[in-house]
Write a structure and sequence with these properties.
It is a single chain. The model has no long low-confidence stretch (mean pLDDT 96). The protein is built from ten helices and eight strands. The termini are close together. Strands 1-2-3-4-5-6-7-8 form an eight-stranded parallel beta barrel, surrounded by seven helices. It is of the alpha/beta class.
Length: 244
């Protein structure tokens, strides 16, 4: 079975914010992606609200719950009390905890485990007690996967930036092997596998059949391609690329 596609609509929010009104509307953007076949919607609220605003989250959560109950809602966020309370209040299917460095342009590294495990474990326990699946953002390394499992998470989301940048270069085979090895280590530790960062229709075939892959989260590449062919076609191309 192919991994699920969750479309990250943060960049739709970024475009909306640049104008100061409500175009593009995030609910409508989610509807178009879902109509095209996306099985999930992802948002990554940040405290600086550069993309999705805090107030967007309950609106999207309620809309998906009422109109698309089978569509998975994934909230990515840092392990900060305000954001964790936002997640708990809106009960997504999944929360992906992502480490944040102040001033970063985008997420660019995974959790440092086992060093940060004591900070993560209480939050993981709270989220799971509320019935929310928990994933954590991890670099494509094998050794920390055992520590991730010990922290109680259900899945890891592999940071695929280096893999995506290596695609089509002399680094492609090496980076592909790293992603596959990390996925295998996560599965061996008893966790599911998600993947995200700079994945697109070109490089998805290199990982779509790797061990335990449940879901990919794609935002930037989807909206960039949508500028050329439209949202519907861009989503359908990603779904085709996910077929093993």
């Amino acid at each position: 079975m192919a991994a699920k596609l969750s479309v990250n609509i943060n960049k739709y929010a970024l475009l909306r914010n640049s104008r100061g009104h409500d175009v593009p509307n995030l609910v409508q953007a989610a509807d178009v992606c879902i109509a095209a076949g996306a099985q999930g919607i992802t948002v990554h609220p940040r405290r600086d609200e550069r993309h999705v605003h805090m107030a967007d989250v309950p609106v999207l959560a309620a809309h998906l719950r009422e109109n698309h109950p089978s569509i998975e809602f994934n909230i990515e966020c840092e392990n900060h009390p305000d954001l964790i309370e936002l997640v708990l209040a809106n009960r997504p299917h999944q929360c992906t905890l992502v480490p944040v460095t102040p001033g970063e342009v985008t997420s660019d590294h995974g959790w440092d485990l086992p060093r940060e495990a004591d900070d993560l474990a209480p939050t993981v326990a709270r989220l799971k007690a509320a019935g929310i699946r928990v994933s954590i953002f991890m670099d494509c390394e094998t050794e920390p996967m055992a520590a991730a499992a010990q922290a109680g998470v259900d899945r890891v989301e592999l940071y695929t930036g280096p893999y995506a940048w290596g695609w089509g270069t002399a680094d492609q085979d090496r980076e592909t092997e790293r992603v596959w090895a990390a996925a295998a280590a996560a599965v061996a530790a008893g966790m599911g596998v998600n993947a995200g960062h700079d994945l697109d229709r070109h490089n998805l075939p290199g990982i779509c059949a790797m061990p335990g892959l449940d879901e990919v989260s794609i935002g930037h590449a989807q909206i960039c391609r949508a500028l050329e062919v439209g949202t519907t076609t861009s989503v359908q191309e990603l779904l085709q690329a996910l077929e093993p």
